[in-house]
Design goal:
By secondary structure, this protein is an alpha+beta fold. Helix content is 66%, strand content 8%. α1 packs across α6 and α2 packs across α8. It is globular, with a radius of gyration of 18 Å. The two termini are 36 Å apart.
């Protein structure tokens, strides 16, 4: 029981406590490596006009600043074409938010819904969910390598932390926290939180997923 508690509770708690002390250069490197990996695999250069990218980026940054003080500032907003991924957006640990052309097209007539998606991703940045996920993954790799005596896999686990963000999904607790951040930010901006629900409905429909 103690081992189980340590693995599922103790290690994550320890990993999360170390997150604020990770050097900024390391976090920036994770963003850079993760985006490099994605650009080599799933993403392509955005086909949106540069003027449209600039307009959206400036508007979102303005809204972010009005939504309240940010613990982790947005480093960059990147646009990518993603035929295989479809309508989506995601945040990297250092404050880089990636937006696909497909979600911009899907929600082009619902600007508040599109903003709601970006605010959700901003929530992941604000609460450092990406870095916490990587820290926990790395800590688990270290513990398992030591327990199983497979120290050769330890190097692979640590070196591969940059790709963890690409492959991993956030926990339900993290997602709920980001959802709450988005709806509260919408209210602060004088917009209806229903915009977030509209975004989810549209995304679900575009991915042909059961709406329930």
């Amino acid at each position: 029981l103690l081992c189980l508690w340590t693995y599922f509770r103790g290690i994550p708690a320890l990993a999360y406590s170390l997150v604020p002390h990770v050097p900024a250069a390391v976090v920036a490197s994770i963003d850079e490596q993760s985006l490099f990996t994605l650009d080599k695999t799933l993403l392509e250069a955005s086909k949106l006009p540069i003027a449209e990218q600039t307009r959206l980026r400036e508007q979102w940054l303005k809204d972010f600043n009005q939504a309240g003080s940010l613990q982790v500032p947005v480093k960059a907003i990147e646009f990518r074409d993603a035929p295989e991924v479809g309508a989506n957006a995601f945040a990297l640990p250092g404050g880089t938010i990636v937006v696909t052309d497909q979600i911009v097209e899907l929600l082009k007539d619902q600007p508040d819904a599109l903003l709601a998606v970006l605010l959700h991703e901003l929530g992941h940045v604000q609460y450092q969910h990406g870095l916490k996920t990587i820290a926990q993954s790395a800590a688990n790799a270290v513990v398992l390598a030591v327990v199983l005596g497979d120290l050769g896999s330890l190097q692979e686990g640590v070196v591969g932390t940059a790709t963890t963000m690409v492959q991993a999904s956030f926990s339900r607790d993290f997602e709920l926290q980001a959802d709450t951040f988005s709806t509260q930010a919408l209210k602060q901006l004088g917009k209806s939180p229903n915009a977030f629900a509209d975004a989810l409905k549209a995304i679900v429909k575009s991915h042909d997923v059961d709406p329930n």
